[in-house]
Automatic annotation (TrEMBL):
PROSITE patterns: EF_HAND_1, TONB_DEPENDENT_REC_3. It comes from the Bacteria. Residues 1-21 form the signal peptide. GO terms for cellular component: cell outer membrane. InterPro entries: Beta-barrel_TonB_sf, CarboxyPept-like_regulatory, EF_Hand_1_Ca_BS, Plug_dom, Plug_dom_sf, TonB-dep_OMP_SusC/RagA, TonB-dep_OMP_SusC/RagA_CS, TonB-dep_rcpt-like. Keywords: Cell outer membrane, Membrane, Signal, Transmembrane, Transmembrane beta strand, Transport. Its main location: membrane. This is SusC/RagA family TonB-linked outer membrane protein. Residues 128-250 form the TonB-dependent receptor plug domain. The keyword RNA-binding does not apply. The keyword Lyase does not apply.
Amino acid sequence: MKITRKIYLLLVAFVVSQAMAAQTVLTGKVLEKASGEPLAGASVFVQNKDERTLASVLVDANGEYRIKIPDEQNLVINFSFIGMQSYTVKYTGQKVLNASLSEDSHELDEVSVSAKRVERNQMGLTPREELGAVQRMSMEGLETAPVTSVAEALQGALSNVDIVTGADPGSNSTIRIRGTQSLNGNVDPLIVVNGVPFPVSIDDDFDFASASTDDYSQLLDISPADIESIEVLKDAQATAMWGTKGANGVLVINTKKGAKGKISFTFNTSAEVKKEANTYPLLNAAQYVSLMQDALWNSINDLGYSSSNAQTYLDLLNSDEINFNPQSLLFNEYNVDTDWLDEVSRIGYTVDNSFSMSGGGDKATYRLSLGYLKENGTTIGADVQRFSTRFNMNYRFSKKLDITSEFSFTYNIRNSNWSEKVNGKEPSNPRGMAINKMPQESPYFMTADGSARTNTYFSPYEDFGETFIDNRNYNPVAMVNEAVNRLDSYSTRLSFQLHYQILPVLNYYGTVALTADSKRTKKYLPNEVSGVPWISTSDPNLANDWYNRSSDASNEQLYLYTENRLVYNQTFNDIHNIVASGFLQIEQTTATNYGAQTAGNASYYLSDPSTGGYIVDLSSGESTTRSMFSNFSAQYNLFDRYMFNATFQVEGSSALPSHTRWGMFPTFGIGWQLGDEPFMMNQEVISLAKLRVSWGQTGNAPSGVSPYVGTFSANSSGYLDMPSIYPSSIQLDNIDWEVVDKWNAGIDLGILNDRILFTVDLYKNVTNNMLQKKMKLPTSTGFSNIAWFNSGKMTNRGWEFRIDLNDIVKTKDWRFTFSFNISQNENKVNEFPSNLDMENYEFDNGKYAYLIMSGNPLGSFYGYRYKGVYQNTEDTYARDLNGNIINDINGKPVVVQNGTEKVYPGDAKYEDINGDGVIDANDIVYLGNYSPKIIGGFNFRLSYKNWQLSANFQGRVGQKVFNQTRLNSEMMRGKSNQSTATLRRWRNEGDVTDMPRALYGRGYNSLGSDRYIEDASFLRMKTITLKYSFPKNLTKKMHLTAFDLYLTAYDLLTFTKYSGQDPEVSEKKMDDSGIVRLAVDGASTPKPIRVKFGINLRF
């Protein structure tokens, strides 16, 4: 045994010695040619004739290296260092080999591809060959004016990309590309990150039984510091590669990758403060009490003292709230002058830090990034923290095979103001409540000497006759400080992408991606906010559902995506070129949720359903949705000038029944490279001239989980009070794809070697077979409506223009770049069913008719035309269409009626469209729509030596907004505080004013009319930045590659005639179906003025 072991050891030693003898050791130094200093960290590679790396090593601090040379023929030694020109020498048996590297003429930061590589899209086409409407945006400059979200970076930067962002930290954004394409289908663009669709995440109130795409949040958990570029795909030709998921446009986001060479580090840090630009002018305590007395006496005089309501109003006149009775126990609590809006506001701040590391060699490159963001909003209780990390790696096995892997993880903590429906209605947000809260009321209990006890909130259950449960009245200061609405979200993303060159003309691309999202929402509404008693006021045997109310919800989503793609590209005789591709994409989304609501909890920390609280509601659900998409595309290029493309898509969706599940969508495009014609070759002005035309179809499937399936529900007290199971929704066998026909014609023009670039596009999108909801059925069927069906037609048409002046001024010290875009989209509903349950109009103050009518745009406002105030008695007489006074049978003038009540001098005057003397639903007219007529923006960057000044502007023209905040603060009908505009209200006959009289609890002086529909056009300076870059000779002494300081102001200037705090208003669902969406200013947090100071380091 010992002899065998010795023989074995001798054989191993012999083999090892032979292997070592077959290798030669090469040594040497790598220096910088200009200075002669060592290039520590430079890379030395040994490569064979196939450019395969056999060995590599990094140069040490003295510039020396030592590397073993394999026993192979035709080897080369490559020396490289980031920012230096590579040096390659043939290996001929040298023992010592030194190298001196020169500085590259182009400084490299973080790049995603080498300069020689031609970028191609998913179909294998270069930007020059693309026939679709595509706009690209480089993220250059974001390091000097960083933003906290992708949506903020895109605002005003690209034509016909309309974005409205919220001002609260982490709030959602509305993104529309070329308008709204669907009523009930998905209306948000698809987001693709590094070639993989970015799945939307689940809201905390997600309902799997009736979910729509609007129930998903579109927040992107991507740090802008990680983004290299963004592309926007608009027409059917450009989005064909993504199927129906791209029906509303596609945002393609490419993140930064590692670069070959020395390890490089980047560190960015910034601090920001922000404050609201202006406040809302409200009445003080004395003015408010005077208004309330005026309103109450006007109602008493109209009704007469004998009426029951008049007695109620007399009691309110004598109430502690406005009577300032020193004998009252609450005299001190109702004898102050509170600025409630100031009490719920603060100066916000943001801290943003990011760090990245990148590098690699010939075979592998990598980039690792870490980020931390903390943002406090200007409304107390609104803040967000984001922890993010991302790792990208590319490994090249050979000339034919390379693999890219990506891992990212994001953890968000978002605190926002509490929100939940109370008795079916959403209460005002804390800012809205602060605007309307009585100013003479204290947020806190007071001491005997009139000092505030700031640790004890004053939240009476009944406040001037109003309660939390019935009127959603609460203490907004307690709400922002004590109520909890915390969302913890985790997002993990892992993807692998493989590229293999089967033949020189045939390539395979494979992708597998997995995204896991998890959300936990915790809400808590303590009694300190609402003042509700422990025992229910309606039944003393029951606990109150809103006493220390708690909600706990968790949502999980797992998204799996696979893609297989073949791309064929071959040129024949330098004349004919064919690019053909075939896709197969499969995706699956699995989601689960759980929710519990309890009341009577001891505290926020003891509010879990297991701690013994009163259980109000429990819910849970799970779902799985799948889709499959195939795409076959071929493009023929003749003489590299004439281009013809045909694409055929086949897609299946589990949301449709089996016989309509598969949709087929063709696309065709043609293009002409006019600039490459022989007759254009002898001029030097026009460098690019491409004409392109395309037509194609895309579609939308219903949202939700198998919505075509008939469902059954259980009823514990149904027919004859017996438990039963009954059919609750009808089987839908004929639901089909919604189809959008898209036409596009465009021209791309480059002048002076593309220093001046023009892009012009004309388009028309027609949505046919529209997805609809709630078609009424006869009650004899046992169902009230059909959940989904296809009917109707809608059109979006418009134009886009963009000009880029790239280094239009470029001297030794000066550089100037300018970009401008402007676009228009016109929407029109061409055909619409008349039997949909959407015409639920309630004649009341503040109510508009929520309608969709053929011939008008989507998002239209319908209401009355406001004509001012009835100045005197004669002015209140009804008149026919010819202006003649209408008399009754006794010959006496008829007084106009607002609904069922006759008007008095000082009441609001509305146009009587049909001249019948009654203002009712027959007088409702079209008042405009929320879609802007024109959107656009411009930006510039001016550089002088080491200084740089840059600015971005965004504008919208012709958007109509319902100023609900103004309506609530000029209504003068309840106990809410009002705007100082009400100081000019009508009081006596002969007063000439546009403000009606105060009238408590009655009248119709604030009907939904054009009085509150305002033009919200604006031009806003989104950012202005002053940056200083330290000279290279100084940064080199500090061992840095770059050192920048910058100062940025956000939203510093806004030019608008809009009377609200912020003209940038997003759309809001106005009905239960979600079909009617209008732009409503509901006192959300306005855009603050923000000032940021930052530092960027590269080393």
